[in-house]
Specification:
Length: 466
């Protein structure tokens, strides 16, 4: 798990004030981090094209060119003449070692974007748009210094974006790397240390990036056990019965001892799934919403779902129900798992505020914070290219998912995984985090074509994670 920050300027300032480091030292370390990667991955005399802006991001790029000069064929393109003192100083140094400053952009083995850093606030002008488009048309491996040009300080896209293969984060990770819209432009993210270790550089935060190593599976170690030791999940099976069946299969695969579909009419299921017209007496968690429709009377929902305090996952159709959303004010373990369209409907019911999907996607972190302030007892999992999990004042980002999950049934699998953990006695935040990680990593482990994965494949892969 890594810390994530809104911005890094205050962390840089701490380096100056507390550690006696200078802007020059931090810039040299920024350049050195990129240099190390290039030397490890590209042979000497490879060509390197650096497009540098007029500020300190440009200064980082110019310093990189100096460090590579002599061993690599370095060409420096100045988008604009340096304005910041550090960029001016780095250009003076670069010219002293004979770096070639070019007027035209030609292809190279490595393309470095050091035009704008993470402080971008304005729209890109026509010259910058043309520059980014030209850089994107080149075939070399593309490196972004700090953040790809075209992504602003909030993580939103301005006109066009440099499409990086790898982005070097300077000092620490920033929130702007993890909005859904930028995922196809950021590439791999590597953090460069700036004169002190990350432990000394990092400050306090309530935002964290989840990693594969953070996943904790419900592994069974005790030998003297029975199925009742591992909980009993009840899943409401509504109009689209397949969704609940998928969730129940996933729950069983992830370790729950028993799974029952709560039905009105019998449905075809695998023999290991039970069916009941009411909530079983030994139920330890509930999942509601997957394919639910309007199948159940409100009196039934009141009796079996709303009027108890069992742990619960609320998903899909349930997120459009004012009755079921009243659960969010209860003192029980609750996880809600909306995709963006479901979130805006839920938020309208809960707050009266009408927002569009675009408004949500541009302000995902802000809206999950609003939700968690309003419902501090609830764990929110907002689905997306980068899943966001929020509880109280803490936010966890899962960047490990892939487009393989963009298929009907994936969300039903997720609900089943989370409900399984809740039924086994885990808390809501643990269940959301580890259900999300298991889903993402199972999708990555699927060996078929990128477009071919079925929910059943996903469930099978969950069973191989240990």
């Amino acid at each position: 798990m890594q810390k994530v920050f809104l911005e890094c300027n205050s962390l840089d300032k701490r380096c100056y004030d507390e550690y006696g480091l200078s802007e020059d030292i931090l810039m040299e370390h920024a350049a050195s981090g990129m240099e190390e990667y290039i030397r490890e991955n590209f042979s000497k005399h490879s060509s390197v094209l650096i497009a540098a802006g007029s500020g300190n991001n440009g200064g980082d790029g110019i310093a990189l060119g100096r460090l590579l000069a002599g061993d690599y064929n370095v060409r420096l393109f100045l988008h604009k003449e340096p304005v910041s003192d550090m960029a001016k100083l780095q250009l003076k140094r670069a010219k002293a070692v004979g770096i070639e400053v070019v007027k035209e952009l030609q292809d190279a083995d490595v393309i470095v974007d050091a035009v704008f850093g993470s402080g971008l606030k304005r729209e890109l002008d026509a010259n910058t748009i043309a520059l980014v488009n030209r850089l994107n048309s080149l075939s070399g491996v593309k490196i972004a210094c700090d953040i790809p040009t075209g992504i602003d300080r909030k993580g939103n896209i301005k006109n066009v974006v440099f499409r990086a293969d790898i982005t070097f984060a300077m000092g620490a990770l920033k929130k702007s790397y993890f909005l859904d819209g930028v995922k196809d432009f950021i590439g791999e993210i590597r953090v460069v240390t700036l004169g002190v270790s990350r432990q000394l550089y990092d400050g306090e935060t309530t935002m964290y990036l989840l990693e594969e190593s953070d996943m904790v599976l419900p592994s069974r170690k005790a030998q003297s056990t029975h199925k009742g030791n591992f909980g009993h999940v009840a899943l409401l099976c509504g109009e689209k019965e397949g969704a609940a069946v998928i969730s129940a299969k996933a729950a069983m695969r992830f370790g729950v001892g028993l799974a029952t579909l709560v039905i009105q009419d019998k449905v075809y299921t695998p023999p290991y799934l039970m069916q009941s017209t009411s909530l079983p007496a030994n139920t330890t968690a509930i999942a509601v919403g997957m394919g639910l429709g309007t199948f159940f009377e409100e009196s039934f929902l009141d009796k079996h779902v709303v009027s108890n305090l069992l742990p619960i996952v609320i998903d899909a159709d349930a997120l459009y129900s004012k009755k079921l959303l009243s659960i969010l004010s209860q003192a029980r373990k609750i996880v809600v798992t909306p995709h963006p369209k479901e979130f805006i409907s839920m938020w309208r019911i809960l707050s009266g505020e009408n927002i569009t999907i675009d408004e949500l996607q541009e302000n995902r972190f802000e809206y999950v914070k609003k939700f968690s302030l309003k419902f501090p007892n609830v764990v929110l999992l907002l689905k997306g290219a980068n899943t966001i999990i929020s509880h109280k004042d803490e936010i966890y980002i899962n960047p490990l998912g892939s487009s393989r999950l963009s298929k009907g049934g994936s969300g039903d699998v997720l609900s089943g995984l989370i409900a399984s953990l809740l039924a086994q006695g885990y808390d809501a935040l643990f269940s959301a985090i580890n259900g999300s990680l298991a889903l993402a990593l199972a999708s990555r482990n699927f060996l078929g074509s990128s477009y071919a994965m079925l929910p059943t494949d996903l469930i099978d892969e969950v069973g191989k994670l240990e």
